[in-house]
Amino acid sequence: MATLQELLVLSSRTFAVGIGILPEPLREEITVAYLLLRVSDYLEDNQELEDADKVDLLRSWGRVLDGGAGREALLERLRAAREDTADALVARDSAAVLDGLNRLAPEARAILVRRVGESSEGMARWVARGSVFDTEADLDDYMHEVAGRVGHLLTELFAERLSGLVGRRDRMMPLGREFGLALQTVNVIRGLHEDRDRGWVYVPTEFIPDPGPRPSELFEPGNRNAAMGVLSRMVGKAERHLAAARAYIRMIPRRHHGVRLFCQLPLFFAVRTLALSRGNPDVLERETKMTRREVLAVTRNAKLLGFSNRWMDWYCGRLAVVA
C-alpha cells in the first residue's frame, strides 16, 4: 500500500510541489483532500462504468466518507479499477486515503467530509443529467461542483488554520469559487481535443453562433471558424475568473508565504497556459502546455517574489504575453 505522499507525487507532480510548500497541518489536510477528490474524479470520468453505476458509486463514496455503510463493498470496486490513469491509481489505494482522512483533526475532517461529499453528489447529478450545456450558467454549475466547491473547501481550511483570515472568510468564499472556476475553465480549454473523444464537449451552446454546428460537431474540419470563435469566448471567460483568483490571493496576508505560493503557482500556470492557447488552432487537436523550463522558472520566481501583490499582478501580465 502506497503512502499518501507517494500517491500524491504519482498522481500529480505539479500539485505535489505546491502542497509541499504548505505548513503543517495544512500540508497533510490538503494532501488528503486532493486524493479524496481524485477518487471522485475517477468515479465521474472513467470509461469502465455505465452512467447509472457512476451515479450510485459517487453517492456511495459520499456516504462512506461520512462513516456510512458500504465501505468494504465500495473499496472492493475501487481496487478493481483497471484504467491506466492517475485517478485510477489513487482509486485503487482509496483505503489508504480514507485512513488518512480518519487521522486528521476533527475540525479538518469535518470540512473535508462535507465538501468532498457535496462535490461527489454534484458530480452524480451531472452524470445523470449528461453533457448538455445550453448556457454559460449550465457550464458554471457543472464547474462549481467539480472545482468551485474545492475553492470553498480550501478557504474553510485556511480560515481554520491561518491567523488573520477568520474575518475575511465570508469575502473570500465567493472568490474561492471563482478561483476554482478559473482553473477548471483553463482545464476545459486544454482538454477540448480529449474530452470530445469520450462524448463530453464542455462548450455552452450559446457560445456557438446561430446558425452553427452543434457542440458535438464543433471539431469537424468544416467548422474550424466556429470552433475558434468558441475558443476565444472560453479564453475570455477564463480571464474574468482569473482576475477574481488574483483578488483571492491578495486577501491572504504576506506572512503566510507558503499558502500564497500554493495558490499562486496554479494561478501562474493557468495564466501562461491561457496565453499559449489564445488564438491557437493547435488547441483543437492536441494539448497545449508549458515547457518544463517555463514551469521551473515560474516556480523559482514565485518563491522569490510571491509575497508582493504588486509583483503578482505584474508577473501575470508578463506571463499573458507570448513572444
Summarize this entry quickly:
The protein has 323 residues and is mainly alpha-helical.
Sum up the structure in keywords.
323 residues; mainly alpha; Farnesyl Diphosphate Synthase; 2 domains; 70% helix; 0% strand; globular
Task: Describe this structure as you would to a colleague.
With 323 residues, the protein is an all-alpha fold. The protein has 2 domains: 1-105, no CATH class; 131-323, Farnesyl Diphosphate Synthase (Orthogonal Bundle). Helix content is 70%, strand content 0%. It has 15 helices and no strands. It has helices at 4-11, 13-21, 26-45, 51-65, 71-79, 86-92, 94-103, 106-129, 136-161, 169-190, 192-195, 224-250, 257-277, 292-305, 309-319. Helix 1 crosses helix 2, helix 3 (26-45) packs parallel to helix 8 (106-129) and helix 3 (26-45) runs antiparallel to helix 9 (136-161). The radius of gyration is 19 Å and the shape is globular. The model has no long low-confidence stretch (mean pLDDT 93).
